[in-house]
Amino acid sequence: MSEWLKIKKTHAEKLLSIIVERQIVKKGNFALHLGHSTEYYLDFRLVPSHPNDFAEVCAAYADLIKNEIIELDALTGVAYSAIPFAAGTSVRLNVPYILMEKIEKEGSLRTPIYGRIKKGDRIVILDDVSASGVTLLCVASILRALGGVVKDAVVLVDREQGADKVLSEQGINLHYYLKLNEILARIPY
What we know:
Elements (H helix, E strand, L loop, with lengths): L2 H19 L3 E7 L5 E6 L8 H18 L5 E4 L5 H11 L3 E4 L12 E2 L7 E5 L2 E2 L3 H12 L3 E6 L2 E2 L4 H6 L4 E3 L2 E2 H5 L5
Parallel strand pairs: 3-4, 3-6, 6-8, 7-9, 8-10, 9-11
Antiparallel strand pairs: 1-2, 4-5
């Protein structure tokens, strides 16, 4: 096993511990934002309230990017839950951070970003969870329209609902630590 795979496995175990200890996985009937529903919702929004866990999550993202992507000019997080993680990871990697808002109105003249994108900037998209990949693809489309080059997205958990396929069809590689089924196998329900 390569050194990176050992480090990745260690991060995955630490992430699993955080997920269990902080009760990140909620069981019930949840509506997701694109009309989908799910029995399990992963809520990473409280992690920034726990500094050691927050630091571990940002370290995990940074190591994933350094070892699987290597070259980037900027980092952005999907609004809203990934924003603190993207900001913390950008500081850890010493790369510019671009804050991207959700677009509230179609046809708005206001740009949805805070920060600067130069034509040709290699931008990595960061989110906590991937599902269908549509949200990541929308963010990539906006960044590309503004001159950015998007070839990679990083998440902590892949829900295994097709994001990797949807993204790869648009030239975007999905990098992650855990699959939802791996997490569910460790949670005592």
